[in-house]
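User: Let's play a game. I give you a shape written as tokens, and you guess the letters that built it. Ready? Here's round one.
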């Protein structure tokens, strides 16, 4: 996985980070500024277009504060069921394209079968506003970009250098976009990457029990994802999602502990994948101070897969991931960098992902 960004995106992000604000006055010389959990959401192929509520930040903000947040995530995905892996390895071919005969053979395999090969990126732009000492709101507009797989050779070289299995990557051509999924009640055969496009915007409201947290805080949120059009694979489900979230935050002199529990009503775009359902997500994290302006974050993420109408355990299994990150802040600017590693269910969740985000906080004069 790697980061991907356009020139215009960098210009916008740097513009946010360059402005000076009164936020620096809230950071006394010896104080530690907590930032909270990294705001990473579901990046699985069938979960990318759903509402996944982001963890609440831990920045103390006063009435009239607003902030821009720009988050970049990009990943290379190679995921397949065991029977497809057996078929590809059984061909005895190296760097061979998938022919129409191969696709037909995969669809004809006993039971469910799937293969996802490609790259996709997510760019979230979020505007936060604190309109009272306890209440705030936010609007997130996502942009999704797709590519065939320019990182394939890098990832395979890394695997070979450290003696890791390539999981069948060498059985097909590099830099290809392929989605083949034959499940109990639906089939996907997609050989062309989706067009880059805007995703569904998300509107949320946040209530903070403490207006100026000292030792602890409890934050409640409600949010809704608003479909901007009809269903579009990996871009929009074509349905509205809504959810609730509770975040408990405990602060110490140089450490902070976080627990976030959310429940999202997911409107499935295809009853062959799953019926409309409630999807729970639990995130636990620990943040610690390294220097006055630099924090370390470790967090874990567990959530239910959006695909349930299948007999493949590797596709319907719960997702479990861990993220290590560094969070830098100074004078109202926040830069975050994190690496996410899959802990289980390797064939329904990206193996490794990288996230880079920028934020700038503006205070009312």
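Assistant: Ready! My guess for every position:
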């Amino acid at each position: 996985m790697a980061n991907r960004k356009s020139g215009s995106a960098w210009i916008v992000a740097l513009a946010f980070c360059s402005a000076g604000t009164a936020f620096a006055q809230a950071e006394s010389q010896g104080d530690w500024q907590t930032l909270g959990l990294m705001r990473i959401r579901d990046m699985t192929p069938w979960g990318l277009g759903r509402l996944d509520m982001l963890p609440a930040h831990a920045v103390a903000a006063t009435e009239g504060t607003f902030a821009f947040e720009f988050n970049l995530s990009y990943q290379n995905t190679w995921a397949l069921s065991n029977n497809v892996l057996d078929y590809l390895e059984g061909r005895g071919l190296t760097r061979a394209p998938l022919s129409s005969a191969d696709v037909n053979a995969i669809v004809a395999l006993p039971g469910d079968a799937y293969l996802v090969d490609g790259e996709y990126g997510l760019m979230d732009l979020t505007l936060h506003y604190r309109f009272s000492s306890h209440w705030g709101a936010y609007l997130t507009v996502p942009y999704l970009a797709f590519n065939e797989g320019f990182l394939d050779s890098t990832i395979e070289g890394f695997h070979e250098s450290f003696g890791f299995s390539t999981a069948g990557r060498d059985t097909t051509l590099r830099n290809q976009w392929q989605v083949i999924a034959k499940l109990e009640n639906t089939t996907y055969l997609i050989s062309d990457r989706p067009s880059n496009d805007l995703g569904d915007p998300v509107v949320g409201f946040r209530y903070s029990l403490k207006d100026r947290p000292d030792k602890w805080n409890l934050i409640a949120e409600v949010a809704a994802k608003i479909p901007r059009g009809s269903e579009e694979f990996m871009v929009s489900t074509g349905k509205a999602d809504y959810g609730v979230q509770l975040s408990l935050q405990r602060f110490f002199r140089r450490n902070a502990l976080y627990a976030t529990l959310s429940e999202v009503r997911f409107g499935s775009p295809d009853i062959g994948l799953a019926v409309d359902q409630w999807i729970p997500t639990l995130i636990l994290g620990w943040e610690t101070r390294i220097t006055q302006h630099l924090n370390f974050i470790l967090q874990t993420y567990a959530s239910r897969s959006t695909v349930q109408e299948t007999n493949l355990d590797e596709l319907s299994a719960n997702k479990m991931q861990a993220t290590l990150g560094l969070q830098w802040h100074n004078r109202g600017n926040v830069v975050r960098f994190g690496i996410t590693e899959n802990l289980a269910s390797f064939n329904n969740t990206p193996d490794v992902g990288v996230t880079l985000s920028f934020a700038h906080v503006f205070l009312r004069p």
